[in-house]
Task: structure prediction
Amino acid sequence: MNDSFFRKIESKTGVPMEEVFALANAIQYADFNDERQVRKIIRKVGKLAKKEVPQQTEDELVNSIVKNGKAVNIKDIQDMLGRQ
Result:
């Protein structure tokens, strides 16, 4: 993709693309049975979204992800953060 595309995303979101790529990389190689890794990813998504993740929401997300052993679905995290 070209640089102007990424610059547009950065200007609209205020999130540097390096951080988005770092998050994508962390998600791609994460062990979703490891509670600490899952918590770290959830906190990173919250930070990038500029939303505080309440402990109860974080716990619910972690339990759901670790229990299912599935990859993180960013849409699910966004939905949970949006219902605060």
